[in-house]
Amino acid sequence: MRRKHGLALTMVTLATTLATATACAGGDEEPGATDTGTDTGMEEPAGDAVLATGDSELGEIVVDGEGMTVYYFSNDVPDSGESVCEGECLAAWPPVHADGEDPQVEGVDAEVGTITGTDGELQVTLDGRPVYLYAGDSAPGDVAGQGLNDVWWVVAPDGSEITELPGSGSDSGY
Q1: Residue range of the domain that includes 88
Q2: Is residue 162's pLDDT more than 70?
């Protein structure tokens, strides 16, 4: 009997996470990407770097200090000095925080800065755009938020958006 309740709780939690992600994107589309559950072999960045780079199924990407994938939110206005992700959006898309105004990075070529996020803490920016994590990513290298509602995008080390969806690359592996 307990097993059924545990499964039900897990399903409710998953449904809530997906509903929240959809709600904060302002759309009612289904997610554009799924978690493949594959181990990419990504390692945590060395030292005290807030951001670094790592390999994923989308190629080289920006990750946080624990190796988790970093995303842009298309609804944020570059160089505006603010994030538009608030409320339920922050639950699904927590900001990447910085301990100071000059965060350390490794391998990231984009211009690094900070803003005061909607949660009142320093939030890291790349090329003037706030960066976030996705609550649906459970392990380093996961890119489950990629392309969600066509507004959440993984960040490349040069600061550009990666708009390719997982599994849609033309590389056949041969």
Answers
A1: 2-162
A2: yes
Per-residue pLDDT, 112: 97
Alpha-carbon distance 65 to 104, whole Å?
10
Q: Amino acid identity of 161?
A: E
CA 171 to each of CA 19, 96, 167, 168, 174: distance values in angstroms, whole numbers, following the listed order:
33, 31, 9, 9, 8
What pLDDT does residue 24 have? 52
The residue type found at 9 is L
Asked if residue 118 lies in contact with residue 86, where contact means CB atoms within 8 angstroms, the answer is yes
The Cα 164–Cα 21 span in angstroms is 19
Whether residue 56 is contained in a domain is answered as yes
pTM (two decimals) = 0.74
Per-residue pLDDT averaged across 109-131, rounded? Answer: 97
Q: Which of 128, 118, 93 is nearest to 22 (CA)?
A: 93
Count of structural domains, the chain: 1
